[in-house]
Please model this.
Amino acid sequence: MSLVLPLRLLLLGAPGSGKGTQTSRLLKRFSNLHSLSSGDILRAQIAAKSEVGNKAAEFIKNGKLVPDSTMVELINTELELRGWLNEASSWILDGFPRTRTQAEALRKVLIPRKATVNMVVELDVDQNVILERIEARWVHVPSGRVYNLDYNPPKVPFKDDITGEPLTKRSDDTAEVFQKRLDQYNLELGPLKEFYRDLGVLHRVSGNTSDTIYPKLERLILEKDKKNDI
Ligand SMILES: *[C@@H]1O[C@H](CO)[C@@H](O)[C@H](O)[C@H]1NC(C)=O
Model:
């Protein structure tokens, strides 16, 4: 089905909360919805050697973080290129903005195009549940097959189902490393939520699995679409 009204959606969620899964389910459900991830934009603009792409490549080459102003410029350029920078297009932005400063900068470029973010949903997943899931995750590096010891265990413990080769843990799939990412997220979340709450577009759905969160998220979107209040 298609959305009647334009939806410019931002999903806020901790690393490991399943933003990617929710996004791909929404894209399957709503045929006129698109998604754009900050990582994809960065790669596309660098490959295209656009002016802003070259600027971003320079920061990365020097081992620096791409600054907020350049990220906003990248997103703006890519939205423009795709013809989505208008009041009629529907899209989900993934991985950006992460901070209130970024959100403010993004809003500034979207306002003149009447394409501001009109719905923000916080995916509220218990962080202990996220950590348990990370701890239980093992991978077969050559194939990229991922196992979860609780939900999707290998047939033989710690062995890949197809090749029988040993499974390993990714270096960042430990509670310790992941906790640092969660702490960073938690630090940025308050000011970011406040910004969107003040604009009257913030919502929240709670659940510990993608299957429990998705129906709530879809219902929120459908209600908003029906109410014509976007
Ligand atoms: C998520 O899991 C935690 C810990 O098991 C539990 O306390 C909480 O109620 C769960 N949340 C939901 C929405 O099911």
Remarks:
- Residues 126, 128-129, 206-208 surround 2-acetamido-2-deoxy-beta-D-glucopyranose (CB under 6 Å).
- The chain has a mean pLDDT of 91.
- The longest strand covers residues 8-13.
